[in-house]
Write a structure and sequence with these properties.
CATH architecture of the largest domain in chain A: Alpha-Beta Barrel
Strand order of the largest sheet of chain A: 1-2-3-4-5-6-7-8
Structural class of chain A: alpha/beta
Distance between the termini of chain A: 30 Å
Largest interface: A-B, 34 and 38 residues
CATH topology of the largest domain in chain A: TIM Barrel
Number of strands of chain A: 8
Shape of chain A: globular
Radius of gyration of chain A: 20 Å
CATH superfamily of the largest domain in chain A: Metal-dependent hydrolases
Number of helices of chain A: 17
Order of helices and strands of chain A: HEHHHHEHEHHEHHHEHEHEHHEHH
Largest sheet of chain A: 8 strands, parallel
Oligomer: homotrimer
Amino acid sequence: MTSWADDLRLVDHHCHSVVDRDLTPAGFGTLLTEAPTPGGDPWDSVLGLAVRRECAPVLDLPRHAPARDYLARRRELGTAEATRRLLAASGTEALLVDHGLRSGDLLGLDALAAAADAPVAEVVRLEAVAEDVAGSGVRPDDYADALVERLDRRTGRAVGCKSILAYRHGFDVPPHRPSRAEVTAAARSWWRVGGRLTDPVLLRHALWCGVDRGLPLQLHTGFGDPDEDLHRANPVLLTAFCRATAPLGTPIVLLHCYPYHREAAWLAQVFPHVWFDVGLASTYVGRRATEVLAEALELAPFGKLLYSSDAFGLPELYLVAARAFRRAAAGVLGGWVAEGEATEEDARRVATMIAAGNARRLYRLP
Amino acid sequence: MTSWADDLRLVDHHCHSVVDRDLTPAGFGTLLTEAPTPGGDPWDSVLGLAVRRECAPVLDLPRHAPARDYLARRRELGTAEATRRLLAASGTEALLVDHGLRSGDLLGLDALAAAADAPVAEVVRLEAVAEDVAGSGVRPDDYADALVERLDRRTGRAVGCKSILAYRHGFDVPPHRPSRAEVTAAARSWWRVGGRLTDPVLLRHALWCGVDRGLPLQLHTGFGDPDEDLHRANPVLLTAFCRATAPLGTPIVLLHCYPYHREAAWLAQVFPHVWFDVGLASTYVGRRATEVLAEALELAPFGKLLYSSDAFGLPELYLVAARAFRRAAAGVLGGWVAEGEATEEDARRVATMIAAGNARRLYRLP
Amino acid sequence: MTSWADDLRLVDHHCHSVVDRDLTPAGFGTLLTEAPTPGGDPWDSVLGLAVRRECAPVLDLPRHAPARDYLARRRELGTAEATRRLLAASGTEALLVDHGLRSGDLLGLDALAAAADAPVAEVVRLEAVAEDVAGSGVRPDDYADALVERLDRRTGRAVGCKSILAYRHGFDVPPHRPSRAEVTAAARSWWRVGGRLTDPVLLRHALWCGVDRGLPLQLHTGFGDPDEDLHRANPVLLTAFCRATAPLGTPIVLLHCYPYHREAAWLAQVFPHVWFDVGLASTYVGRRATEVLAEALELAPFGKLLYSSDAFGLPELYLVAARAFRRAAAGVLGGWVAEGEATEEDARRVATMIAAGNARRLYRLP
């Protein structure tokens, strides 16, 4: 790896927090896969190899130490010390965190900032706020107004909003804002049946409430856990939504995107207000992160691609993602220089944009 | 190529049998393409190049011998001798064979085992059994019971079942089991019109009869001949079916998958009961089998990927697929070692799992 | 790059013409992206890097000259001289031109031939002819006959027809020819509302009028500007249309295809009358054109892949595409030779087929 990529400071524009307690081997393994129940040894994957390669030395073990040794050493050091070491080794200088998923199991944002020794800003998960509102005793006919008001408060210090429409329904919904009457009717139905927010009208309504905030609006797209139908989470299905939001100025940020990142890159090229990342993939795919970055950069304007880890639960995932990104940047952008495709100055400038500069501008970070 | 990959013994978990007679040049050419009528010289493809490269020396010709020379030498040796040599050179130690397609044109399973000098086990094609039942004089109202009974007999010594729903309709069907009344009504319609099994209710019914057997259930997915609409054969469309079958314990095995193998790998990661292969692609894509394997391993748990050739008709295809797999394993897993991503021990272990171990466990082979 | 690829003479089987006036920096930038309004500096893309790398030396500047210097030098030389130099450097020996898009802003075909010092032949855009007919004072009930008659005249000296169904609607239409009654009813509606041709019945009708001409019928597929829904422009959605046209003899030519070129390659393998290219992608994706070509050749018969630039407006795009193709051919086919996959003779023959021979045969060029 060339040294300039090792020195890149990263803004992780989409991640979650880390588990704050000691994990059993099984509990650790569950966080190495998107499967609720792993079908085999979760270490038998490129992510498992990457943890043994990248993280073992940070815990004073040799590279490629066996999983058993790794887990034993991690227990010996304690979760807090392992977390501190792994986050520090990642070279992340700011974290934008979605804390709307299982937040009770994870470090709070202030504690995460302390553990990472880096500022943390919040990305507000729209569906979590909507469910809070629905559980707050408001009447269904007042739901729409109450959600606007609650979001106004919740996003006061946030840097962005996030939608998980892909998980709760899929992108096969009309692209435009639902009417007030539709929302009220759907809210009445939801009040009757209860449970999680899965009604497509209310999901679209929450999404458009996010659009109205004007902050960058992140959408989960591409692969994740089996709650979703992957093909209905293809970001290209958002083309009409991108067309509908283009005049409004709210940035749309497509998260993860894999394996549809070439389609996402097209959206980022043709719509001035669309950004994207290949996070989560960088975490999971090991040395193939280089290939995924190369595919993403085929059509992506250099100013539209962002770095993220989408790490959840394990501090190992921040480090694996950061190392994978550095290697990918060195491979792809360094490859441009080696083959005379671009000057070294160009390559470094583009790497810095993707690593941090694009996110700083997009989210107006200090 | 590193020597350890040359030494891998293979279990070909999905293939067909070979033509048992001498072929004309045109007849040979037709088996080099998925086109019923080739649009040009079928040797002008990466598969054609691969046959000239890999198979010519086995028939005592120089590498890259012209097609004409190759066909002449093959005729000179005779089909039996060419078949024996090519199968032996493939290093396959067990073949799981779907004999439900044009079986009259192909060697029987015992003869194939003799030619390959390797044990052969059968995978039962559900639609072929259903058509046998429909042609057996049974009344439509008794079809459902008769199919269960026939499958019970037919699968007694089989190692798996197989569905070609992708060819006969596509995966855009409801994921759940059809009701008895629906099946009977559809059977009555089928009895009236006759012909191949193409009714989507009856195809789903046959699929679920396969699920009920408990044996690994293979599904053709991804590319094949133009009977299918390729996009309706995308394995990701089976997500809801995977969800529906997850509690039942029957392994689901996605065949071929190309060019949707990244989506198949996601299914194999998130569902404990899903396996897949990139066979057929390995056969067809030449040296790019390395890239296809690399893509498949981005998300695939190492225990969930299988080797297959999907060879049909030509013994050349078994050898081409086997060589392509060895090169791909050496390239991808050897690449891990070269770049420090994994130890050599890890790489060899994973190669052995994909080559044979995963199939041995999945199909409970001796 | 190996010298044989530098010497390949190219037939560009699908391109447009060039702007005939001096461009402002912003006007130049707009032609470097598929976005109507660029979201950032359009030079910050692999296409921008490629222009600086490939074109700067042709205008007497050092490789990688900054955009500002490049634009200043181009203005100094004048559009005509820059155009002449860039087209000459591309090594294109024939251009097949779709002149149906913004032709008023572009050089006429004779002037283009003079500037390129190469013969130009026309590809007739079906929708442009249909709109001419609708604007000609004909009655809607006579539209169908008038379109046939007009196409008969317009294609008299043309080498092909082209459909932009993907832009105007998407491929989610019935594959068969609409009835006369449907066409007349749709024409009556169009006459009432006016505007561009977007009615799916009339678009299908125009497409089938193209089929009836018997000339190769090009279809825009894959990425382009945001008028289209990319996923509805996936060439694989044309499978049923390919099946419907297979008996008729009219060649179907899938343009661009990216990022669905693996699916297009499958269509080209299984249907004798289907051809395709990865133009536009070659222009846009920089050094990754090598990877895109490699992916296209996984399933494509060598006789079915064509070279094109899809250049529009800027002569730079012809040169960038030509250089990208030469590098890709050297990388992919040269790689075959280096790894013993094919002989050098085979590799050169295949390169020549894709560069020019396939197009010469398909379009019956002199």
